Structures are given as C-alpha cells and as structure tokens.
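Worked example 2:
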Amino acid sequence: MKKIQISPSILSADFSQLGNEIKKLSEAGADMIHVDVMDGHFVPNLTIGPPVIKDLKKYSSIPFDVHLMISPVHQYIEAYAEAGADIITIHPEATNDLQSSIDKINKLNKKVGVSLNPDSKINLIEKNLDQIDLVLIMSVNPGFGGQKFMPEVLDKIKNLVRIRKERNLNFDIEIDGGINFDNCKLAIEAGANIIVSGTTIFKSNNGNIKKNIDLLRSI
C-alpha cells in the first residue's frame, strides 16, 4: 500500500495571509500544497493565477500540487510550470487533445495529474494511465469549497486500483472534495493515497493544523 500523503487545499486558507498560511502548513507536516485554480468558465468561480503561485513558492519548499480547473487548459500549462507548479493536474474535458497536454507537462519536467469529476468516466483517461503520475478523483462537483462528500465516487477509486494492479502501473490516486475525519477512512480503504482537505484542516479542532493533518494521515 502506498504511503498516505496530505495535500491541504489553500482554498480554505485566509487569503489575506496566504504566505504565512502556507508556511504553517509546511511546518505542520503537510506533504504538499494543493492549489485550486479556477477560471469562472470551466467552473463557476475565480481564484488565483501564475503570479500569485510564483510569490507563494517563496514560503515553502514542499511540492505545489496545482489543480487547473480552466478551459482551454493547454495554452496555460507552461505559465503554471514556470510559476512553480510541481504537479500539474488537468481535466480531460478541458483540452482538445489530452495526449498533447500530457506530453507538454512531461516536456516541462513536471508531474502529470489528470482529474475526473464525479460524472466523468475512467475511460476518458484509461489509455493514458501509463503516462500519468496522479489521478485526482473529485468527490464534489468542482467550483467551491465546503461541499458535501459524494460517496459514489469510491467505486471509481476501487476500479482505478484494479486497473493499476492489472497493468502493473504506479500512479497515485488523490481525492478532493468534502473530506473530513469520517469519510477520509472510506477514501483510504477504497485506495486513495493522497488526501486533499481544506475546511477540515483549517477549521477543525480550533484550527490546530498540525493535529488535523496528523489525524487525517493516521486514520
């Protein structure tokens, strides 16, 4: 079984103190920083762009796990790579040619992530799985933080675990959306090894970030 890693989502952080929030996450033992990039088009919200990510990189040396919820995504991949993204995750529906976008991320020496929305099928990415470092399973419809976890996506995780074993692949399985101390256990049991959480990490236990990260990792 792969080591459980925690990727806190800064979508739930204090945006007026983002640099300090990222520093606190790093000091609290986060494995990576999850950055949600939304364009108001592919998803109904707007967040941050490359200049902000570039500035935030100064506050931590742990990997930046950048989830691009933008369309068309292909033309923006290089800008986020140059800004400091270590993992670049895209949606198959957001590019005209998934293979070409995967190739571009690889060429920029970044890890390749591909995300599946709750309604997106594995067959959208199945032929590309041998070139993907991470599959991000959305357990809410993307666009806003604080939504309720959708347990029906757990079957998708189990199917990915099966395919990974059958084809002797090694991609990580990440889950994002409504993750708390209860459903985190279900996600890990299904086969997820990277847990994205925002509200639970920043708000639970009176905002004790280290305690919340440790609890999620040890469940």
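The longest strand covers residues 33-38. The mean pLDDT is 95.
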